[in-house]
């Protein structure tokens, strides 16, 4: 079976109803939701099974691997989807596989060499071997077959969905089982290793294109041109992830566990949703490039959708976040109400920082993506200074929100110059929804002991105001999901 046959397989070749293309994304959405739910359940189990300091060290493993992989990410999976080159897939894919393996080997070597220093940073000098195993995991990931990624260009999502859901299931089950038996943070590394082996096996088993290493100079040049700006993007995203390193190194593993439960859990669904939305909208923008009017309508729908998701999710965090986290994870991990309001504001701004991303990927203008990541990353610097001075997580997060919102304003101006957004839609969707979120944060700060019923009424008032706003914007600017079907 070839990659071309995947179109016929799903009945989604060019000219087939686009309604089928949208419905095909439901499978991927389900997998992405599972990608959010299973780590959440895994963390709940770990919080109950191991001590807070061990939980913090377990988190540090995924943070360290995630940071170095993001630093070296130059968009090979995205390039396999968007294919901003005239070379054939038979030339491109073996070259992409070779580049992926070279990257993985370099990451693995760096992680193995740095493991003693990383272990010392988190106060676990006798467990350097655990951090060294991260290098093995990184190397194994380099053998993934990119075939399921390529299939998404043709709106065939079930292969990638199967890889995601199975990998996350293996990670959660193995980690929790070993935690129950052993009780130490090493459970995380064994779960990660098992999940990686499963991921490699599945990408090979489900790919319609056999795994093959090769080299085509033109294809490598095109991939490098596409990915070079994303290296800067990766460094910036990695710096933005440095909040956990700051909290862990300055306040200790127990504080890192609390911060990860509160802020990490709050932002996890956003991370998964952003992955799903990009997977869905990059092909839509890619296939709309030859239709400027449709491209513009999709752009406005994208801005409206991002804003609505960010705002309502942020309001949900303000309403229920502290109670739910305290109930699920235990009283030790319950954040303040103010912290969850600030987390809601932060999530909204992070959603809006995605404004130009799928259109930029579709057109190969990855430099714009990198600029956004750099600006987001800069927010960590002043927040780190505040954390050093105050040792207070609320003040730390407030500084992140303020710095990120300033970055979002500048980034939106760049996006409006480079892309097809209607300016009023973009500015309204960026600025207005922050008002109810900020009002709730102010209320939580001035009246921290407000009764639960009164707090719920205030939050529902914010929800009603947001719903009225988004309805008005949709009517005024003719925002319509049927745009995706034409």
Concise synopsis of the structure shown:
The chain crosses the membrane at residues 28-51, 57-79, 100-122, 128-144, 301-321, 336-356, 368-389, 395-413, 425-443, 455-477. By secondary structure, the protein is an all-alpha fold. It has helices spanning 5-10, 18-49, 52-71, 76-82, 89-121, 128-141, 147-151, 158-182, 186-206, 217-240, 242-251, 253-286, 292-329, 337-352, 357-363, 366-378, 380-390, 393-418, 423-431, 434-446, 452-476.
Question: Which key terms come to mind for this protein?
Answer:
2 domains; mainly alpha; 80% helix; 21 helices; transmembrane helix; 486 residues; Oligosaccharide flippase family protein
Topology at a glance:
Layout lengths: L4 H6 L7 H32 L2 H20 L4 H7 L6 H33 L6 H14 L5 H5 L6 H25 L3 H21 L10 H24 L1 H10 L1 H34 L5 H38 L7 H16 L4 H7 L2 H13 L1 H11 L2 H26 L4 H9 L2 H13 L5 H25 L10
Helix pairs in contact: 2-8, 2-12, 3-6, 3-9, 3-10, 3-11, 3-12, 5-6, 5-10, 6-9, 8-9, 10-16, 11-12, 11-17, 12-13, 12-14, 12-15, 13-14, 13-19, 13-20, 13-21, 14-18, 14-20, 15-16, 16-18, 17-18, 18-19
InterPro entries: Poly_Biosynth_Transport
Keywords: Cell membrane, Membrane, Transmembrane, Transmembrane helix
Protein name: Oligosaccharide flippase family protein
């Amino acid at each position: 079976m070839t990659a071309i046959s995947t179109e016929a397989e799903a009945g989604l070749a060019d000219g087939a109803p686009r309604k089928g293309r949208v419905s095909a994304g439901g499978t991927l959405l389900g997998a992405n939701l599972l990608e959010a739910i299973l780590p959440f359940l895994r963390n709940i189990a770990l919080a109950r099974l191991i001590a807070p300091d061990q939980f913090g060290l377990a988190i540090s493993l995924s943070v360290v691997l995630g940071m170095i992989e993001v630093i070296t990410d130059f968009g090979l999976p995205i390039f396999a989807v968007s294919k901003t080159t005239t070379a054939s897939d038979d030339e491109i894919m073996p070259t992409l596989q070779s580049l992926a393996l070279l990257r993985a080997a370099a990451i693995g070597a760096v992680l193995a060499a740095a493991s003693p220093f990383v272990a010392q940073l988190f106060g676990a000098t006798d467990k350097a071997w655990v951090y060294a195993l991260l290098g093995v995991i990184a190397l194994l990931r380099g053998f993934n077959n990119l075939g399921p990624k390529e299939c998404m260009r043709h709106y065939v999502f079930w292969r990638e969905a199967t890889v995601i859901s199975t990998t996350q299931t293996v990670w959660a089950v193995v980690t929790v089982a070993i935690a129950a038996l052993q009780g130490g943070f090493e459970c995380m590394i064994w779960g990660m290793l098992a999940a990686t082996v499963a991921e490699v096996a599945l990408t090979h088993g489900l790919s319609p294109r056999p795994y093959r290493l090769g080299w085509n100079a033109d294809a490598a040049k095109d991939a490098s041109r596409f990915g070079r700006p994303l290296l800067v993007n990766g460094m910036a995203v990695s710096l933005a992830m440095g909040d956990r390193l700051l909290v862990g190194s300055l306040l200790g593993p127990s504080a890192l566990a609390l911060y990860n439960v509160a802020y990490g859990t709050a932002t996890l669904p956003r991370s998964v949703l952003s992955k799903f939305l990009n997977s869905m909208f990059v092909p839509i923008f890619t296939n709309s490039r030859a239709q400027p009017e449709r491209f513009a309508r999709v752009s406005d729908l994208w801005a409206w959708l991002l804003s609505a998701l960010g705002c309502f999710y942020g309001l949900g965090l303000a309403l229920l976040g502290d109670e739910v986290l305290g109930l699920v994870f235990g009283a030790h991990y319950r954040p303040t109400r103010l912290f969850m309001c600030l987390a809601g504001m932060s999530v909204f701004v992070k959603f809006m920082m995605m404004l130009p991303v799928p259109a930029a990927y579709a057109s190969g203008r990855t430099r714009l993506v990198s600029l956004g990541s750099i600006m987001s990353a800069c927010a960590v610097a002043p927040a780190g200074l505040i954390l050093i001075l105050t040792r207070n997580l609320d003040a730390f997060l407030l500084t992140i929100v303020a710095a990120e919102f300033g970055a979002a304003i500048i980034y939106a101006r760049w996006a409006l110059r480079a892309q097809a957004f209607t300016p009023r839609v973009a500015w309204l969707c960026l600025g207005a929804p922050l008002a109810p979120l900020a009002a709730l944060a102010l209320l939580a700060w001035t009246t921290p002991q407000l009764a639960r019923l009164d707090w719920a009424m205030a939050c529902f008032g914010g929800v009603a105001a947001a719903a009225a706003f988004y309805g008005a914007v949709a009517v005024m600017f003719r925002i319509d999901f049927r745009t995706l079907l034409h």
